[in-house]
Amino acid sequence: MLIDLHTHSTASDGTDSPAGLVVAAVEAGVQALAITDHDTTAGWARAGEQAEVSGVLLVPGAEVSCRVRGVTVHLLSYLHDPAEPVLSETLAASRDIRLSRARTMAELLGRDFPITWEDVLAQAAQGATVGRPHVADALVAAGVVADRDEAFAGLLADGSPYVVHHGAPHPVVAVQRVRAAGGVPVIAHALAAARGKVVGEDVLEEMVAAGLAGVEVDHRDHTAADREWLRGFARAHDLVTTGSSDYHGTGKQNRLAENSTSPDDLHRLLAQASGTRPFGELGALA
Fold first, then answer.
1. Is 210 helix (H, G, I), strand (E, B) or coil?
2. Which of 140, 137, 101 is nearest to 15 (CA)?
3. Most CB within 10 Å of its CB: which of 23, 63, 137, 180?
4. At residue 84, what are phi and psi to the nearest 5 degrees?
5. Containing H/E element for 61?
6. What is the spatial distance between Cα 220 and Cα 229, in angstroms, rounded to a whole number?
7. pLDDT(283) > 70
8. H or E, element range at 148
9. pLDDT in tens, 185-195
10. Coil, strand or helix at 107
11. d(CA 91, CA 272)
12. Which pLDDT value is given to residue 167?
């Protein structure tokens, strides 16, 4: 059984529409997936409608931007109430900050390369959470780099003079807000050092104390040693463990369900939610 709990659509920085994401998942043999666009729930309704038609279980979620001690942390929030005001305002603030950050980076890059802010906006779907991936796409369109991977390895890498960082809630605060909204918080790719600096065990312990429900273990940016350590940490704290693709369509090489979550862990996750319900039937996962 293929269960993919970390995917993105055009509501943030993926290349598949929310409905198209569900169709692609079905074509890949996925029985259950989560839509986890960055700091937005805008794709839930369209993806949910397609899930009902396609006979796949859809877990609505979001990837919440966090930051601590200069380190970016991504928190997956599953099944929270999208109308709960505190978390909703947190996500809205992050979207605004992402937009401002992307514009600043476009202006910095524009001093040395043939791209403009309008070029960046042209890469984002209407209403999407604009961010660094769209800046990368503008660089690709301008012929500056070959693809997103090259952009993120160089011009848009942490430490680049063209990259500016944005304010975001402390991950402990984010965990608390997700729980208060009836959601289930799971930290994404916590040890993916290839992406940049990662947090230490002390921050993870603080997140657990605040209500962290699980850790994303099986992710392409985790080494075998990373996965082994995270499984041990999860066992020690009785946390859910997930495996996911972090799929972005053609925006990244990641393929749907290249890593999968067990049905037992999905059931554990669903049992903790009180904010909203998944789309589709649970019977197929019994």
1. helix
2. 137
3. 63
4. -65, 125
5. strand 57-68
6. 15
7. no
8. helix 148-153
9. 999 999 999 88
10. helix
11. 21
12. 76
What span, in angstroms and rounded, lies between the C-alpha atoms of 208 and 186? 10
Specify the pLDDT at position 59.
Answer: 98
What per-residue confidence (pLDDT) applies to 282? 63
Amino acid symbol at 162: Y
d(CA 57, CA 283): 10
What is the dihedral sign for C-alpha 242, 166, 14, 151? negative
Let me know: does 185 contact 212? Beta carbons within 8 Å: yes
pLDDT digits (tens, 9 = 90+) for 234-258: 999 999 999 999 999 987 889 999 9
Contact call for residues 279 and 43 (beta carbons, < 8 A): no
Note whether 36 and 275 are within 8 A (CB): no
Instruction: Read off the pTM.
Output: 0.88
pLDDT score at 278: 97
Nearest-CA neighbor of 64 among 136, 164, 169?
Answer: 169
Predicted confidence (pLDDT) per residue in 42-78, tens digit: 999 999 999 999 999 999 999 999 999 989 999 999 9
Least Cα distance to 263 among 32, 27, 29, 28 occurs for 32
The type of residue at 66 is C
For residue 165, what pLDDT band results from cuts at 50, 70 and 90?
confident
Structure tokens that stand for 268 in this block: 């554990």
CA geometry: angle 70, 73, 77, nearest 5 deg? 150
Hey, is 152 helix, strand or coil?
helix
User: Tens digits of per-residue pLDDT, 32-42?
Assistant: 999 999 999 99
Number of H helices, E strands in the chain: 10, 7
Which string of b and e fits 15-42 if b means at least 16 CB within 10 Å?
Answer: bbbbbbbbbbbbebebbbbbbbbbbbbb
